[in-house]
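Apologies for my clumsy wording, but could you write out the amino acids of a protein and the tokens describing how it folds?
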Amino acid sequence: MLFAFLALARVKSLERIRYMPPGEWGALLGLDRIPEVKTLREKLDEIAVPKATADWASDLSCLWMESNETLAGILYIDGHVRTYTGHQTELPRRFSSRDRLCLRSLIDYWVNDREGTPFFVVTAMGNEGMLHYLRTTIVPRLLQEVPGQPDEASLAADPTRHRFIMVFDREGWSPSFFGALWNQHRIAILTYQRGAYGAWPTNDFQEEEVQGVHGNRTQMRLAEKPYPVAPAVQTASSSARFREIRRLCDDSDHQTSIITTVQQELRAKLAAHMFARWSQENFFKYAEREFSIDRLAGYATAPAPDDQTVKNPAYNEIDNQIRRGRARMSALQAERGRVPLVTGETVDVKAHMARCAPFDQQIIALDVELKQMRATRRGTKKRIALKEIPEDKRPQFIAPYRTQFMNTVRITAYRAETAMDNLLRRHFGRKGESRALLQDLFKHDADLIPDLDTGTLTVRVHHFTNPQASQAIEELLKELNESETIYPGTSLKMRFELVSIATPAGQEV
């Protein structure tokens, strides 16, 4: 509970507790004070046991999915690169779009609903890409955890029905994989088309109303055609029908192509699902800033699964040598080309050839060397399993179980804040004001009054600086009271109220 409270109060590292009043924080937990940082780190190691942590995260994910089967039926999957600048281990390099560099990092694959609220996260050591982790980890887990899936009889009776929909960006592009998902599991996908594609005639598009996840409506110009796939893919995925839906942007110059195997939904609804993918990007930006999802939970290392693969260091070395050799070859050819030829006379030509001879010898020798290196590269495996790397050079996870535990705590805190934000949002006209007020509420002054006789724990929140905020919080507290929450570890029912009535209108100050 303390870790969750720290996340909501934006205390982004345990070290910051050193400079905070331990007694005030202890009062929230019914203690005289909270433990010091050293003790908290020890407690974290005791709690973050591998199997228990994984089971806890899985149980919570199932609970959240079951609480709203509609949201669990459309799942958004995206990777978030978590760079590492320490020296405990040599992690594989992968491209970070934020830094526009290839950096040593881990990658987290987050599974969210269409409102951007996460269910669970999978941390990957290797750099195989999204498709690998979809096949091996995410899809098997979703098949077990997603509630409300139709049974085999219902799927057999209706060939166009799907279990659930997965939405992701072009990183997961693979028509053969899409067909296999439909044939083997009846899972539908929704993604952007990868690669270049020709424009459709403008008169193919029709104006349609598209409703967003929060009820907002907008007009889009949409068109749809069957998507042609390669013959091999079509044979392997005979029962999957691919649809291509395009949106004509307002400038009429760009067309966004969406590929899907969903067969029952209207194109306007599918377009709404696809463009709601930005809710996940917004979550990453917000969670990185407010909940520090990129921060390390510790520095201890743990071995990664041996079956994960990385790019072969030997292949990387020979590939880099070939690149340097090609660069040297280009430089030599350029230098040779700059040797002047004065005239076409025999004497001048012989002098020119004599000056070019050293360059020609170097170019010939370098060409032979490059051919040998290319032959060596062809005989070297591009990717190898971690178990094939010498143990002293093998990359390792950084505090994997601590990270999984803290990520679960952060997800829980974010979901709690989002639930309260949904209650507050209607009181404000501008986007983001309700979350800003909640951040203030979590750190606001309040009185805690336990009453063992009546079995209540009263939380009296002090008034805010403006009447609108106080009125909105008062309405929120009324709804929280209706939940009749029992404070964990006690039998006390929680009651929330403001310290006093709001300032009467027209009062002179």
